[in-house]
Amino acid sequence: MDPQPDQAPSLIPAKRRQRLFGGWQATATRHTPLEDAQALFTGTVLTALGIAILGHLGFLTGGTAGLAFIVHYGLGWNFGLVFFLVNLPFYVLAFKRMGPAFTAKTFIAVAILSLVTAVQPALFAFGHVDRTTGAVLAGLLMGFGLLALFRHRASLGGVGILALYL
After folding, report:
1. What is the pTM of this model?
2. 39: closest CA among 128, 136, 143, 154?
3. Cβ atoms 109, 40 nearer than 8 A
4. How far apart are the first and last CA of the chain?
5. Cα–Cα separations (whole angstroms), residue 82 to 72, 90, 134, 158
6. Mind spelling out the 3-state secondary structure of the chain?
7. How open is the CA angle 58-63-69, to the nearest 5 degrees?
8. Residues 6+ positions from 137 with CB-CB distance below 8 Å
9. What is the Cα–Cα distance from 39 to 34, expressed in whole angstroms?
10. Is the Cβ–Cβ distance between 43 and 109 less than 8 Å?
11. Is the peptide bond before 3 cis (omega within 30 degrees of 0)?
12. Closest among 69, 87, 88 to 79, alpha carbons compared
């Protein structure tokens, strides 16, 4: 009876796993295309808002977004365009290892994030933002955004592809 057909094999025997984790089991949830579209949009907009706060404060983040920030700060190039270009090589890995659906969702999410961060300065500007509060708020927004994307088998490229693959 261990493993069940809808669960991955486990190194922990079924009885001990039940005792340790109770009824909490990691199972994949299938989403409709509309739910996926909503999650892609919501996740990328939340992440873009977090990135806008970091940019306003002059802070950096890690991964491909951090590399895009460095180029943006150093050369004055548009963050969205640099972020889009930096992620291009990762689509090959995504397609080979994660499949075309994941790659398409990731490409769309990166494109939306690039577009939103490119037009954001024309839409609204920040006044005074406390550095500590801004950093915490940006981290929360970006974390919630990535969570929405990961739950719908998408990412924002770069390290996110590696994280979901591993």
Report:
1. 0.78
2. 154
3. yes
4. 27
5. 7, 14, 23, 13
6. CCCCCCCCCCCCCHHHHHHHHCCCCCCCCCCCHHHHHHHHHHHHHHHHHHHHHHHHHCCCCCHHHHHHHHHHHHHCCCHHHHHHHHHCCHHHHHHHHHCHHHHHHHHHHHHHHHHHHHHHHHHCCCCCCCHHHHHHHHHHHHHHHHHHHHHCCCCCCCHHHHHHHC
7. 30
8. 50, 53
9. 9
10. yes
11. yes
12. 69
Q: What is the pLDDT of residues 104-137, one digit of tens each?
A: 999 999 999 999 999 998 998 899 999 999 999 9
Contact indicator for 36, 151 with CB cutoff of 8 Å:
no
Q: Are 66 and 99 in contact (CB under 8 A)?
A: no
- Which residue would you say has higher pLDDT here, 12 or 83? 83
Question: By percentage, how much of the chain surpasses pLDDT 90?
Answer: 62
Q: Is the CB of residue 118 less than 8 Å from the CB of residue 78?
A: yes
Residue 54 CA to its chain's centroid (Å): 16
Are 74 and 88 within 8 A, CB to CB?
A: no
